[in-house]
Structure to design on (239 residues):
């Protein structure tokens, strides 16, 4: 090897030493970076679990408010439910109609008629409230014809405060806009309510059979469905 080649080889070795990477220093730097992650990575690592916790807490709070929220208060319906037996048209009766009580007059196609309430019994001995219509001024039980095919109409009595009732209608023995009720004899006033809560006061009439008659003006097509009854106050027996 000539002197020139030797000098060139030594110069190349010196340059190679200056550009060779320091592997130990590079490894140490990599370890330091792994032990101390950048701030952005820390935020990503902790941000996701924190967001999930916030979602769960929000859901729990909303569910708690829904479950503990007070239910809306519905307006109370007045009175008690009015449950009556179904009217029977011209039923078979064991005995004739008893002494009738006049209810109201109404105008038919040709004549003026009078509605009556009368007590009766069916073949099984069940008490009934019967409603019939006769020409005004006619004697009950006379030869005069009755009004329409639905006269008389009878309603079986049921246990309770209101024993029986009949709501008038077109073509019936009681005109539309009227209703008659047979109630316990101790009742002194009767208030009636239709499905809309509208009030109808019933007028006390006569005693009839096992009860007391009340006649009411009602809204046609909207019969009473609830009632309030006031009874005679009872006093404890004196000692």
């Amino acid at each position: 090897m000539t002197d020139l080649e030797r000098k060139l080889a030594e110069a190349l070795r010196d340059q190679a030493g200056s550009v060779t990477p320091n592997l130990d220093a590079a490894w140490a730097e990599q370890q330091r970076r792994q032990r101390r992650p950048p701030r952005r990575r820390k935020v990503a690592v902790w941000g996701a679990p924190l967001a999930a916790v916030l979602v769960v807490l929000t859901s729990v709070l909303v569910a708690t408010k829904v479950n503990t929220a007070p239910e809306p208060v519905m307006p109370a319906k007045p009175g008690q439910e009015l449950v009556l037996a179904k009217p029977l048209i011209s039923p078979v009766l064991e005995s004739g109609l008893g002494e009738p009580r006049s209810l109201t007059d109404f105008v038919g196609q040709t004549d003026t008629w009078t509605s009556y309430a009368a007590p009766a019994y069916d073949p099984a001995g069940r008490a009934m409230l019967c409603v019939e219509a006769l020409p005004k001024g006619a004697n009950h039980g006379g030869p005069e014809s009755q009004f329409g095919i639905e006269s008389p109409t009878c309603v079986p009595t049921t246990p309770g405060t209101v024993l029986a009732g009949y709501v008038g209608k077109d073509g019936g023995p009681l005109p539309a806009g009227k209703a008659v009720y047979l109630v316990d004899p101790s009742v002194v006033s009767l208030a009636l309510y239709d499905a809309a809560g509208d009030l109808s006061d019933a007028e006390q009439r006569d005693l009839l059979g096992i009860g007391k008659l009340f006649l009411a003006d009602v809204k046609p097509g909207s019969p009473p469905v609830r009632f309030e009854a006031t009874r005679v106050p009872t006093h404890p027996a004196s000692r």
About this structure: The chain has a mean pLDDT of 78. The two ends are 151 Å apart (CA to CA). The longest strand covers residues 112-121. Residues 39-68 form the longest helix (30 residues).
